[in-house]
Amino acid sequence: MRNGGLHAACLAALLVHSALACSDDDRDKRSARDAGVRDAALPDAHAPDAHPAPRDASASTNDARDAELDTGDHADAARMLDAGPSGKVEPRFATRILSADYYAEGADVGDIDGDGRVDLVAGPHWYAAPSFELSGSIVADPKKLGMDEYGEFFLVFVDDINADSRPDVIAVGIAGGDNGQPNTYWYENPGRDKLAQPWPKHLFFSDLVSNESPAYLNLVGDARPELVFMNGGRLGYARPNANPLQPWEFTSISGDVSYAGPYVHGLGVGDIDGDGMLDLVERTGYWRQVPNLPWERHEFEFWIGSSADRAGNWGGAQMYVIDIDGDRDADVVTTLAAHQYGVAWFEQQANGAFVGHSILSTQASSDNTSQLHALVMADINRDGLPDFVTGKRYYAHPSTTPDPGTTDAARLFWFELQRDASGAKFVQHVIHEDSGVGLDFVVRDLTGDGKVDIFTCSKRGTFLHVQQ
Ligand SMILES: [Ca+2]
Ligand SMILES: [Ca+2]
Ligand SMILES: [Ca+2]
Ligand SMILES: [Ca+2]
Description:
The chain has four helices and 28 strands. It is mainly beta. A hairpin with a 2-residue loop joins strand 24 and strand 25 (423-432). The protein binds calcium ion (4 copies).
């Protein structure tokens, strides 16, 4: 969520290193997802002692953090941001079930009704702060779906598309579309007095938005976000048309590399090489953004173990570029197979290659969780180190073509990053056993107490997990 011109100004200011004065409301879900990514674009990221990655993760929520970031100090990479060790907490969450029905698998937040508070958007429904009661829908009579059905809101991104200061909703549907038809639309916020009626629907992109984890953020350094995705076997991004009511226009950064169809898993944005420009990462490597030159491909398979052990649809969800081990180079964190098992981080080496470290096994077991189809980075326990929230996308495939463990508990959990003399390790903490995630979700402070909360929308319903 952000408010119109303020948002544009905020993003522009970011490029001159004053964006940190922007309010959290201007940052919305993307701050939790790729705040580090944005910091990476800051000019000071070029400073030799200041790798941008560590600053990202804390990107989630509070003013204290913003204040520290604003000082521009290049603190020890191991000390991430707003909270020193004394700020560390042992998080507990209380779960509110906003809906027990399945309508959508995409969640975002924004000030839908313009009252200055951040509201929740779960696919076609929105829930107004501070009560978070169901407040309306953006389409007429949203359809309650069955476990074997797919909806039209796989992912949602809230942003003001037509610059009228009212946050609109971008809805990305299934990556293959309906028989190849366009799958991404945006719904125009009609304004506070008309929120009871369906929102006008516009085509966002005239072809398929593919890859199952598109990213919405400012990739190429203008004043506005782009939508990053794959189309026609190419990797690239879409930017607004001069006429905001016309579909956005795609730029390929990869040329005609084939990504073998629309249902590719795993995509992320971050500054891999620390040159201050954002790069793209996907399951088979990364693409380095180079000024005034074609993007440069570096092949690496972000997988742990033998390639013989993985399914053709391997690859995770949102991929993160962040310094995990505190050695000031950017590492990569990803789930490994959105329809199987596994989580890992990949430690960048001096030669630009990576060494994989397992966080969660790729093997089925009674205490493992499959279908980790969404991943969000945030500092959950306020110790200054990035943590990661993920969970099961229950019935990620229908019962006719089930994934391993598809009917297991829809667990939601987070991985706490810890560092000591032996290096980095992750400790798993279960948050909830019957909610899970969809294809994207939100981790940020939604109740105004400075503690990050978790808002998810999945086939188990719509949930607000409030940190106590
Ligand atoms: Ca608008
Ligand atoms: Ca770079
Ligand atoms: Ca590192
Ligand atoms: Ca942490």
